[in-house]
Write a structure and sequence with these properties.
The protein is an alpha+beta fold. It is built from four helices and 13 strands. It is globular and about 45 Å long.
Amino acid sequence: MKKQLLVLGLVAATTLSSFGQGYFLFGATKSKGFDLSSGSVVAGGAGDSFAFLWSANSAAVSAVGAGTSSTVAGIPNGSWAQILADPNFQFAQNATAAGTPIAVVNGNGSSGWSYNGGLSFPVLNSPNSGTVAVYVVGWNNAGGTITTPQQAAAANTLGYSSVFTYAPGATSGSSVATFAGVTGFGIQAVPEPATFALAGLGIAAMLVSRRRK
């Protein structure tokens, strides 16, 4: 009888563990997310928002090529459309908040941020052991009116870090690190598709004109 109870207890523990959420500490003290959308380098602050994506595959490659990093001086090569439809990564959602919203935090004025008051939180459906792949995205929140990545996609500002590995905690009491592995990146205005189309037409017209001459 005791053996049966022990086996049942182990099975129950394993089952509960498999449905557990991993705990993350979404914070960076400074010099990580800069705002270049105005044409000059400004420390990321309350006017900038940050979120992150994760993948259970610690070797996953992001759809925007975040593995090569978007730097302060660089312009993102990827687009919001790629990020929102990324087959390998998903936005982190707070498993204990009402409606499990995407974890979004504003900058602290020093190009850093601190989500959930600096406390760890469970990310919906994430593993609670091992390592995951993570990268951070940022956008200009237009005075706090653009509160989600989906809204940010329509506003055409974007920045993202390189992909790095992170070890989630098993419980809220687990010791977990901040996002120390995140690289500094710049938030910039992203040209609209129409801009690229017009540029293409202009180049085509120029080539036709030269051929005629």
